[in-house]
Here is the input.
Amino acid sequence: MDAEDIHKLAQLARINIDNEMIDEVAASITTILALVDQLQAADTEGVAPMSHPMDAVQRLRADTITEPNQREALQANAPATAEGLFLVPKVID
Amino acid sequence: MHSLTIAQLMRGLRQKQFSSLELTQHYLNRINTLDRHYNSYISVCEQQALEQAQAADRQLAGGTGPSLCGIPIAHKDLFCTEGVRTSCGSKMLDNFVPPYSATIVEHCQAAGAVMLGKTNMDEFAMGSSNENSYYGAVNNPWQRDCVPGGSSGGSAAAMAAQLAAGTTASDTGGSIRQPASFCGVTGLKPTYGRVSRWGMVAYASSLDQAGAITKTAEDAALMLNVLAGFDSKDSTSIDKDTPDYTQTLDDSIADLRIGVPAEYFGDGLDAEVASLVEAAIKQFEALGATIKAVSLPHTQLAVPAYYVIAPAECSANLSRFDGVRYGHRCKDPENLQDLYQRSRAEGFGEEVKRRIMVGAYALSAGYYDAYYRKAQQVRRLIKQDYDAVFAEVDLIAGPTAPTPAFGIGAKTQDPVSMYLEDIYTLPTNLAGLPGISIPCGLTQTGKPVGLQLTAHYFAEARLLNAAHRFQQETDFHQLTAPEIA
Amino acid sequence: MEWETVIGLEVHVQLATQTKIFSGASTAFGAQANTQACAIDLAMPGTLPVANAQAFRYAIMFGLAINADINQHSVFERKNYFYPDLPKGYQTTQLDQPIVGAGYVDIEREDGSRKRIRIHHAHLEEDAGKSLHEGLGGECQGMSGIDLNRAGTPLIEIVSEPDMRTAEEAVAYAKKLHSIVTSLGICDGEMSQGSMRFDVNISVRAKGEDKLGTRTETKNLNSFKFMEDAIALEVQRQIDVIEDGGQVVQQTRLYDGDRKTARAMRSKEDANDYRYFPCPDLLPVVFDKAYIEEIRQQLPELPAARRQRFIEQYALSEYDAKVLGDDAATAQFFEACVKHGEDAKLAANWVMGELSARLNASDIRITQSPVSAEQLAGVISRIKDKTISSKIAKQVFEGLWQGEGPSADAIIEAKGLKQVSDSGALAAMIDTVIADNATQVDNYRKADADKRPKMLGYFVGQIMKASKGQANPQMVNQLLTEKLNTIIEG
Here is the structure.
């Protein structure tokens, strides 16, 4: 992990990291990656990946409206709204 | 009153020895005077608690009180509570007041429980020491310069300091059991899918499970009776009948087969912890259980597998905290990118950022197979280890954590040494199994040690039965921190 | 040099469910901002998704309609990227195990030739919300507003193979999909409301070359016309770039239909690393064969089958059957009309003629027609029983369109448009016309017998004029010929 890798990761995760912190972050992530690299020793030939603890399948929901309009309550926590819209700095496509 | 168990308080309330209002006021007084030493609460809901207590008293007077009627409890601050700030121990949600409640919060309300407040925790449940809270570290009531464990350090400390009759908590890699061990209390992590995750702020969705930290296994059974149950709002909730967990507490454990995995007693295990745990296992033998040496060969791989899977899931789960719809938003963002990058940089603490970045890395192009896919394969190997062992035994016993509580600040500079704290608890989460940590004695310096029992899927009743029988024969769970007693 | 264009389409189809794919909030179009965005749609902390059964049913219906394999085991994945209209910071979609596997549709070119377009797969996913950049004044100047009503609307994304070679083929393919999804009733087909949106992957290569050129993706085209124009524009741009000695750069482009221009998207400039992984909040979705078979049994009629049926059942021409049969709403209107009016040929002519012309002129869809199928059937019935002539029928139709009456009969009655078939009244009119046109009658008498039928038209015209168009033309013809013959012979 060098500074450039950390910058890329930070951009991917949308987390600003101050330049003076980069080396420290790089060092700690490097240690963690060294820990997880122990996985490479495992023999996993032919083992199916396991995403869920249970071999359960998805239950499906009936297509009926259960959620009424609650805009006011839901927007009470919003940092900036106007005319029912959440406001953000201009989005450029 | 604060030394009584939930079971005892339920009797006291029904026999009118005291009212819920008196009981609640008593706990609130304790919190007000004592919690400055422990910092176990993030929010205290005095007014609301007193109102709930009065309502409970009315129900009790009418003889209609449901199971936990009038019992003052506290919720870990990652369970959404309608109208009450739910911070997750993070600056990101310092101002977040959910307009809905978690399913388990609703269950507790319906059962008549009084909510004293919300307990401290490692930010977004990421940590093993409760030092990663925006609201400050929690002090272990047994030794204040030690950590209470984490991430449910607030719930465990509140129980040890007797600042609540019972608490809810959550366990992603040991976050119920390890702090219970450090604080000398009982911590139950149910089977994945047994308790609804709706309204519990997600850390790692396939590992997170809500449970309880209590004084005794009997109290844990009473709490689980209320928490457990199918929830159609959680796709991973399992539609399976929940028994009355108190019914089988007193069953004989003469036919119980307990496996002791060699891998749980290797390098890194504190010698005092080892001898206390071994003594506890002997106690089970004395109760008639059969002890059997077993092997969980992939135990060592649980830590690396967990530190890929949990960060990967959290890296996506925490993307929603972007400063747009709720939560922390940086001042005067220059543009959209600035809004994202600064809001998240300011709102998240170091450990959370670290895990998000590790997770993003493990999922990124070119690394997915080597890290994420590999970890998911190892996860299956770990589950298969358990399947093989549970074909021969009913429970697995071992230490909850390799050490007793360590000093505040002792491991903050070295995340990996902190991660290794969870080596005995992580495999259970990866497999989705239920586990419990119960006190099994004190070290020579007076620090509590926990015994961990693990059961097969949905065998919580057996787990609680064994723990309860152990607690009937021992008094480790009745020991209280010197300054509390 | 001669160039060949290679086109592949990704088509997003909004499914006509009542609720979102993962929440119970309404999907109705046009609600006030964020009034149909519930806690789950807003990705509030602690909320969890539960998948909508109907979305799967619709996706399976589509799969069966394009002869695809249905995957009995499908998995949702998270596609990670930050965007304000994507509340969770990831889109829940399908990648390796989509619900619909490989299939195909056959398209027809304008010259009548057919071509098979292969579909790589179709997967279920959630739609994003909308960013609104315009109209925010005052202190919101320079801000974008986020409306999440659309967030979580179920989509199927239909990914074709790069099998199309011209804009015409691409449009024919898109129209074919439109026809299929509307016939199945799984999408309302309202393009102007974004119910169907196209991303077009375009590359060019020298004719005869096997290797594909570098492609660009033009996103979010929401009309057939825009798609056709955008393809033409992009093909020309790529050819110009190559002919100028340059290289086409892989990029995502946005087409502006009003200005007929396109540009590279800025927000997609940095190569995306979407970090897909299976969504841990959702479990694998599994269907047994019996369920899929049950859906197959209940599948509504598809356009190709309907076309064939129209030819057989109503004796329509191939062309009429295509025009009426391909669009579900048109087909439904036509059949309702036949049911009440009992004359398929007349109904076909009216739906494709007068009605279609009026709808086009007013730029509305047949589902919004002010004249209902039953009302039009009323007009047709009155033509058929000769109560009115075809010419008068147009007046009656216009009356219905303007809402001047509830039915054809009511308008005929109110305006007195009933055809005059009373032979006495007609005879009186004929006598008057003959008396008033002695010169023409004289010319008629002197004319050769084979010229007379042509000359008859003059008298008929006079009589129709005198009757304000209401005289029954067949009877006038008959009575007039008889009368003139008497005069000649007389």
In short: The longest strand of chain B covers residues 435-442. The first helix of chain B runs from residue 6 to 14.
